[in-house]
Amino acid sequence: MRIEGHRGMGRYEPENTLQSFARSIDEQLDGIELDVWLTRDKIPVVIHSKVIDGVSGYITFDDGTESNNFSNEFGLNNLIRTSL
Amino acid sequence: MTFKEIRSKKILNGNIVPTLDEVFRLTKDKICVNVEFKGEDLNGALEVLKLCKIHNNFEQVHFSSFNWKFAEALDSGRETLNIPVRQPFGFLTQNMDVAESFTIGKSGDGVTFGYDLIQGNKEGFKEVAKEIIKNGFRPKVYFSFKHNEIYEDYDLLDTFEIDTVITNEPFLMKRYYEQTRAQ
Fold it and tell me: Which terminus, N or C, of chain B has the lesser number of Cβ atoms within 10 Å?
């Protein structure tokens, strides 16, 4: 059975970051899973959800909850729709 | 958002949102990458294939999405870019009705289930997994962050012929397999 790290190192590093992917390589996982959105100017970027609050560093959802980027999983329907 | 806008934002621990190009540079010849397409913009398929072509990492990268239209967009993108290699696609699903994936996909593709779905219908999944394998596809499983993985979860997955597990607990899972192999 192959082991893929969820968004890199799962709970152990900030998800979908180079830091997390680099550690997955160091830990010799079989693979990594990551999330890709296309920006408005057609650059593929690696992030799970579409909204970033630059001030708090947290991702904010339309039900008022925030993700600390470690432990929350939300469906697309919960996300604020933006142009990204 | 444009790239410039998203790049100006800081995420946890001072990290910035990476581009897929940067990830491909980091991972080249080092680790397999499962690119999950998000959203509705199918142009993403072509843009990602362009990057695979630049990095020549076709053997290392495979794809997945809850939006199965990306499978067809990738086929179309390969044709546009004259890419002879067909990288496997994982059909992410929130139910056990997977028959349509067999008509869209090709042998070697995956069908990927959330673990909670399996846990709630073990017997049903057993039959579905057999059907997937019979069609030349590979059953895969992902754990959500809401679920706290324990050894009993891996015991359950061991009863099926799961090809790949997407885990939030890579250390726990590696320990589990080291221990079970040693027994």
Answer: C
**Residue numbers of the domain that contains A29:** 1-48
Answer whether B23's CB lies under 8 Å from A46's CB. Answer: yes
User: What residues 133-152 of chain B have any CB closer than 8 A to a CB of chain A?
Assistant: 142-146
Instruction: Enter the tokens of residue B113.
Output: 């289930």
Q: Min CA distance, A34 vs chain B (Å)? A: 5
* Other CB atoms within 10 Å distance of the CB of residue B12: 17
Average pLDDT, consecutive stretches of 10 residues, N- to C-terminus, chain B (183 residues):
78 82 98 94 96 97 96 97 96 93 95 94 94 96 93 94 95 93 80
Interatomic CA distance for residues B151 and A56, integer angstroms: 36
Whole-angstrom distance, CA of residue B183 vs CA of residue B176:
11
According to CATH, the topology of domain B91-183 is Rossmann fold (3.40.50)
Instruction: Looking at the structure, tell me whether residues A4 and A41 fall in a common domain.
Output: yes
ipTM value? 0.94
pTM of the model: 0.87
A16 neighbourhood in chain B, CB within 8 Å:
17-18
Put simply, whether B108 touches A (Cβ < 8 Å) is no
B 158-177 residues inside an 8 A Cβ radius of A: 158, 162-171, 173-174, 177
